[in-house]
């Protein structure tokens, strides 16, 4: 972040009171216009990914070294002491959340002409270690305005610090110190307000390179949270050592047991050359899958060594830095490799790049493809020298300092081109992950689809083609020309799912085409399955050879059935229903046709279909589920000729039926010469049910009288006589019509009774005497 960036609610810090820590009136600002001799980027649209901004501030003395952590910046200054005065050391401590208030810390040292050679901030910026050329070392707590001399660590010129677990405002936690003589020490510092009490809880040497080479970097990585297992990397100018083991607190220190278990056969990797500017940087990044990975970079004589440490993934003793790579040094100008190496000053790691600091410029190089993405020269005044870099891992801020100036290295949208890099590497998953716009994601999907198509993975390619802007016709022709109907079906199905609700015409056309494909494939699959089943029946001894193919064919059939029914179900309201019926019928997909008719509640079509296929009981079952009585009136005349008892039984369950509208059906049954006695008995039973239920319709009464007469003989007129006598006082049937029917059937006794009801007693007597 820039020094001019202000947050609405910055995180509060434990700051000293004005009395305890006097503030300077100095103020930091960024230069409004920093002159750039050259700013070279990779040509992509947008601001430069890496850009230097000079801090517009006149430092009171020359800069020696800089460190930064948790948005706290410490700048060590070079002081000049008069011959008879005590040597003064000076440090500026700056809270970047409040850059207008700077702590100017000045303290004296007994070492004549001593100077600060390195400063080290703890990750949370509670603690600061100051190392001098003389070997004197000082400790400055965040609440203090004057550092304390670390008497136990005198004579050690600290070149690197690794902060272990457990840092808080009250303790540094265990930490490892690397020295210029190649030794590693362990200590823990606790702030003491009492001047006579020592901050060092303990101090001991735990490791040595056994060679006169400075330790340029130490890194401690806890391999899983809450675990005592650690990886420790120690680097000199030409070697890097890696150790994995367990560490636990003890009286002799936290890491003492870790190093005590080393067997002396130190695991190291050696690099050619002996780079004086060698240093180690680390940065922890979050991967697309959510895991955390620590990248470790080491500047060597042949290039920048970068490897990864995956936290939380190791339990065995051989865990080391993963997939290390050495990136050669590069610059956009024509300088030689040796000249380039000699001009190296330092480097830093960002999430996806490393930035080299040269004597006159910076060069940003991608860790993914080794390409230079930015280069900027540093405008140097006379007698101005580039000294070093510092990085704040938690805030992702980066700093460059000369002996006269301080620059912030602004990193902007550095992942802007990652999608292109991963696309070139054919890592389509990560390319899609880092694509930022719909156009970029479309390009990734198109390239991935082309790759899958070339690999003949047509179904997978089809699904991706559907998400691109490629011409619908062109994609379809690719699959049609190869007769890849399965892939074409995948493409059409995916394309359907991406259409909007209002795209009715496209949905209907694509859905119909897809239905045609699936229905055809379903028929082919069914035929194959039937053929295999028939072959197995004829040759049971070949079951081991035939059974797998048969099971596969049946599974394909089931899958295609599910796909077709899913299509019909999802798009039932947007498909052209007559076309659906025609297509399914032409392919003989009876089950799917019935399924679709039920989906859209086309009950009349369904009943008609069952009747046409002589599935009388299914037709009647559909009718029985309807609330509308029109279905009964419309279809009963056909059904009653085939399943009369079932039809009449259903009528008796629906009291809302109007019997008069059922008369055509009843007449069909009564006039049918093939009607069984049981069917006629069922019909008579229904009419008797109506009469007993209070039905007074003369048509029903007459029809029942007619059926009674049809079932009676001159020798047995009981049904007719019983019916006539039951209504003698006030008959509901048509008496003259009934008389005519009885005379036609020769039912004389019944006719006599009917004459009497009509009051024609003479005719009744004459008929009786005959």
UniProtKB/TrEMBL annotation:
Residues 1-23 are annotated as: Disordered. InterPro entries: Clathrin_H-chain/VPS_repeat (IPR000547), Pep3/Vps18_beta-prop (IPR007810). The keyword rRNA-binding does not apply. Keywords: Metal-binding, Zinc, Zinc-finger. Residues 12-23 have a biased composition (Low complexity). Coiled coil: none annotated. Residues 1-11 have a biased composition (Basic and acidic residues). CHCR repeats lie at residues 654-770. Residues 48-411 form the Pep3/Vps18 beta-propeller domain. This is Tethering complex subunit.
